[in-house]
Amino acid sequence: MxxxxxxxxxAFTSIEFxxxxxxxxxxxxxxxxxxxVAALVTGVLSVKPVIGLTMxxxxxxxxxxxxxxxxxSAEANPYERAAVAVAGLYALSREETLYxxxxxxxxxxxxxxxxxxxxxxxxxxxxxxxxxxxxxDHYLVANPANVFSRHANNLEFDADGSFIVxxxxxxxxxxxxxxxxxxxFSITARLYNPDPAVFADLVAVPLPTIARGTCR
Amino acid sequence: xxxxxxxxxxxxxxxxANLATVAALPRLINAVVLHRMAxxxxxPNRAMPAPRADASARAVVRPSxxxxxxxxxxxxxxxxxxxxxxVQDSYVSVSGFAADxxxxxxxxxxxLEPGPDGVKRFDLVVAKxxxxxxxxxARVITAPSDRGLILFRTLITRDAELPRLQRDFQARxxxxxx
Lengths: 216, 178
Hints:
CATH superfamily of chain B: Domain of unknown function DUF1254
Radius of gyration of chain A: 21 Å
Order of helices and strands of chain A: EEHHHEEHEEEEEEEE
CATH architecture of chain B: Sandwich
Low-confidence stretches of chain B: none
CATH topology of the largest domain in chain A: Jelly Rolls
CATH architecture of the largest domain in chain A: Sandwich
Radius of gyration of chain B: 20 Å
Largest sheet of chain A: 6 strands, antiparallel
CATH class of chain B: Mainly Beta
Largest interface: A-B, 60 and 55 residues
Strand content of chain A: 25-35%
Shape of chain A: globular
Number of domains of chain A: 2
Order of helices and strands of chain B: HEEEEEEEEHE
Oligomer: heterodimer
Helix content of chain B: 25-40%
Mean pLDDT of chain B: 90
Structural class of chain A: alpha+beta
Helix content of chain A: 10-25%
Strand order of the largest sheet of chain B: 1-2-8-4-5
Number of helices of chain B: 2
């Protein structure tokens, strides 16, 4: 039998099975064991998309950047805790450090190593802050300059206190933040000991804008 | 049993399996990482200074290249843990992560009071609930699980500072059973 069967439209939208035996086991009575095994397999296989959907729903979006205030804390629900374990193990709770991560540019397009980007911003309201680039595998990206992050002590600021960070695989003259030559990447802004006022409005934090330039 | 009831049962089992897997995932990932780190350190309750993270770092996802990390896998099932470290003139913190990966404490240099000699330093004790015989006057933190991780984060404000920070501060970050 060939067919398409969406297990639970709301919870498992990305889990579709082609030519599967699940529906057959339910419809044609392949037995309780078949139903239970199929359900268990479905439950386990749906972990990744369900975590993704939950994190999407709980994230606080500030322009291109997103954060989750439950990161690292006992308030985190099981899905938030699992997401942190996979993509941010040993993250600090918000009082110590706020993490904002951008997977897209300011227009919502996924960050792509084939493109050039321009981050424009000002110092972030915290005791210390940094902007670090990670590859799709969540690790630092090898580059000839051995530069993995930009922060107050390795940036050149403009006269008005603002900064521009070009993000690209090709070397840039000033404030270059190297990106992979291809594939997805992300940028994390860390705010160590954020100013107390930050917590009043996590969307209003003046995070850099991310403008896409040319793409190869 | 009707098809509707079978589908309902299917969804209930799938949801339960999903939640059970999600709930177990942090502990599983953490257990693997802690086991690997303890092996590298020669056992639990020993501080292990890590080199500055670069593109070759693969121990933990999304490391900061601007921090020096020192890790200490703790096991306070039998004896409490004492944590000591000097404080440099920039951000340094000590944090604890339980078996389920929750960050159960984080203390940085700004929160420390200078000692009688006017110098700030970390001097903490991590113990399980109900532990007795703890050092008098020690700042005691109750661990929510017997095993977990202590993480020192030392900020590298300038590249030129790296050798001094490694020698004078990171190398003196300690944890040991008492």
